[in-house]
Amino acid sequence: MLNALGLLKERRFLPLFATQFLGAFNDNLFKTSMVLFATYEIFNDPGKESNFNALATGLGILPFFLLSALSGQLADTTDKARIIRLVKLAEIGIMLVGAGGLVLARAGHGQLGMGLMLGAVLLLGVHSTFFGPIKYAILPQALREDEVLAGTGLVEAGTYLAILSGTVLAGWINTDVAAVAVLLVAVVGFFTGRMVPSAPREGAELKINFNPLTSSWRLISATLHIPRLFLAICAISFFWTIGSVLIIIFPPLVKNVLTADERVASLTIAIFSVGVAIGSVVINTMLKGKVSAKYAPASVLMMGAFVVLFSLIARSWTPAAPGHFYGVAEFLAQPRAVGILLVLLAIAITGGMFVVPLYAFLTTTVTKDQTARTVAANNVVNSGAMTLGAAAVLIITGFGVKPEDMLFLVAAMCLYSAWLAQKLHRACD
User: Fold this and answer.
1) Which of 48, 66, 99, 300 is least crowded, fewest Cβ atoms below 10 Å from its Cβ?
2) How far, in Å, CA of 48 to CA of 43, rounded?
3) Angle of helix 296-315 relative to helix 403-428, nearest 10 degrees?
4) Which residues make Cβ contacts (< 8 Å) with residue 44, sequence separation at least 6?
5) How many Å apart are CA 345 and CA 269, to the nearest integer?
6) pLDDT of residue 1
7) 311/107 Cα distance (integer angstroms)
8) CB-based contacts of 76, cutoff 8 Å, min separation 6
9) What is the pTM of this model?
10) Mostly located where (predicted)?
């Protein structure tokens, strides 16, 4: 068996990995540039900042809820490589819209610019909806059975390293440079997508149902009757609900609690991405290629404990002088800065260790001609759960709950995720 990194030398895997990496990088470069611009240059109120982040998150998730069933059907009845090429071509047009929004907002046309940027977020959600099932469903076709967990771990690790790169870059360049960068990366991604080997339909041709409501219901009904899939999807959905809450509250928390600038905000998100990537690789090593939920309950319990610790450290943080934000050097010079970053890294590592084996369950439980629809069903349930998470942030923020207090909600959700993971472990291992 090839070791995980050995797959990166393989023509059957490398183009897909590169295309996914560039797509995740570009998506996060654009979205982080938009969120940081809105947080630090447009709004001056923690509630409005959280509400804008929740709106952007909701728009990005909505297409997953409406179109995942269609995307799964198309991926299981069409050459997956062909869909990748069409999706990457569409990304160039989407980034033209988003780049225009960034430039206009920076030039002072705030409402028009924000409208275009939010429109691009919605379209990027559509883009990811159609690409998402493919990046996992293509693995059982391209790889041997004993390579699927390693391939899944590499895709996850690459995704979070891409998030890291895009997030860090967004904090260090202005919006004009970001506008040019997202267009260039979209073009490069189009060419790498053209190198993905053909992955034709396996099994009987499907009659596609284009009704988003009935197709979603049938898709979920056809998937969730399998006990281990039901438990895996529920656990993944809870994890991404936790993720959506963290994504929404982190920029306001960094700005208003840690009193740090946008570069520090991008640094904290980047460290989170590194941690998930590390966790993805570590869990593959611990499980030795076996698809198992053995370590999932303990991983998410540790994640919850680190979230509580993060909240406690944040409460004892010494804020910057009024009207001033810590830069990276000033932030790192604070006595508790290293502790903040290490705890954040631990949250991410344990999160990665929790979720990666669960995705491997999705692609190894069903036959190869059903994998895309299974991933799509997971995306429908995930998007609904994440939408509830975003709505919960809006409601809780409306009651005046602070970001550092909201972290306790995240910790409580980790307890429920551990219970689901333990049920999965007992059902399958």
Assistant:
1) 48
2) 7
3) 170
4) none
5) 10
6) 41
7) 37
8) 137, 201, 203, 206, 369, 370, 371, 372, 373
9) 0.69
10) membrane
Nearest Cα residue to 287 out of 210, 222, 344, 357: 357
Q: Do the beta carbons of residue 111 and residue 95 sit within 8 Å?
A: no
Q: Within 10 A of 333 (CB to CB), how many other CB atoms are there?
A: 10
Cα dist. 106→176, 244, 323, 421 in Å?
8, 27, 22, 45
Residue indicated by tokens 């960094």: 254
Q: What is the predicted pLDDT for the residue at 137?
A: 72
Which pLDDT value is given to residue 370?
67
Q: Evaluate whether 354 touches 301 at the Cβ level (below 8 Å).
A: no
Q: Are 399 and 203 in contact (CB under 8 A)?
A: no
pLDDT of residue 337: 92
* Run means of pLDDT, 10 residues per run, the chain, 429 residues: 61 83 91 84 71 79 80 77 90 94 83 88 90 74 68 75 82 87 94 82 68 74 74 83 79 86 82 81 79 85 93 89 90 91 92 83 67 72 79 78 82 87 77
Q: Rounded to an integer, what distance in angstroms lies between the CA atom of residue 57 and that of residue 48?
A: 14
State the residue for tokens 């982080």: 32
Structure tokens at 164: 């890291």
Q: 9-197+212-428: which CATH topology?
A: Growth Hormone; Chain: A; (1.20.1250)
Q: Positive or negative CA dihedral for 406, 247, 274, 170?
A: negative
HSE toward the beta carbon, residue 24, CA cutoff 13 A: 20
